[in-house]
Design brief:
This protein is α+β, with helices and mostly antiparallel strands. The protein has one domain (21-255): Clam (outer membrane lipoprotein receptor (LolB), chain A). It has five helices and 16 strands. It has helices at residues 2-17, 108-117, 119-126, 180-184, 240-245; strands at residues 21-23, 25-35, 49-53, 56-65, 68-74, 79-85, 90-97, 100-106, 131-142, 145-155, 161-169, 172-174, 197-204, 210-219, 236-239, 251-255.
């Protein structure tokens, strides 16, 4: 009887030791290295100026609290700030470069507008493939935590078999109100189903652009002031549908491809 009790206590200790933490407040730092294929940009319309933002190494610092997010990004040629407000499900991106302060926002209404104007956008947004995640025993240290390899398998919109390698930590995962795709700047199917938090992965888009994500620091004990998520004034902020096509007909922006 004493032996059985000892085993029960040991199992109880192990289960509590390896219990996964659900995080609702944290600061996460990440580096994203972007590689564009040659001749990626299409010819600009006559009289227009097209700027590609985010080529090379991009460092970001994310503040996360109760579903809200603020991301500060140093792009070398300027800085950008991305806010996600969980209350109205709106993403706002602000940019400071070449002496200008501008930005754009998107929400469900904006997405519908872009879908109406671009059938390809409608296809992408509506595409939700079934995913299967294979968890492997391969491990390595990332940002001081032991991470494991996982393979996300799915079929793309053309029915082609695809797989995405992800290194994740099982120590914690973000609360359900957080949008992992926004945090990681990636629309990898099934990423939100991962049994942990993604710490490293490389995504290759159809145009050949590569994006390598690597978390460099995680602070799960952060205490973040609610004022952090207030969008500052002084920026010329437009709807994303207008910004992407060039609000004044002379310029458009591409961030990270």
């Amino acid at each position: 009887m004493k032996f059985i009790s000892t085993i029960f206590i040991a199992l109880l200790f192990c289960s509590s030791t390896f219990a996964q933490q659900t995080v609702n407040e944290a600061i996460i730092e990440m580096t994203m290295h972007i590689t564009f294929p040659e001749s990626d940009l299409p010819p600009a319309p006559e009289g227009a100026q097209v700027m590609r933002i985010g080529d090379g190494e991009v460092k970001s610092k994310m503040f996360l609290k109760n579903g809200n997010m603020k991301m500060e990004t140093d792009m070398g040629m300027g800085k950008s700030y991305t806010f996600y407000t969980v209350e109205n499900k709106t993403t706002t991106t602000l940019m400071e470069m070449m002496g200008r302060k501008m930005g754009f926002f998107s929400n469900e209404e904006e997405i519908k507008k872009m879908q109406a104007a671009d059938t390809n956008q409608k296809r992408i947004q509506s595409f939700k493939p079934e995913t299967f995640i294979e968890y492997l025993s391969d491990s390595k240290k990332i940002a001081g935590t032991t991470c494991y390899k996982a393979i996300i398998r799915y079929k793309n919109s053309k029915g082609e078999e695809k797989q995405q390698e992800v290194w994740y930590t099982p120590d914690f995962r973000m609360g359900e109100e957080f949008r992992i795709s926004t945090i990681m700047r990636s629309e990898v199917p099934g990423l939100n189903k991962l049994k942990g938090f993604p710490m490293e992965m490389e995504v290759v888009r159809q145009n050949g652009m590569k994006m390598h994500y690597l978390v460099s620091k995680v602070d799960l004990n952060a205490k973040i002031d609610d004022k952090t998520f207030i969008i500052p004034g002084g920026y010329d902020i437009k709807p994303q549908s207008e910004m992407m096509r060039g609000g004044n007909g002379r310029e458009g922006f591409r961030i990270g491809g």
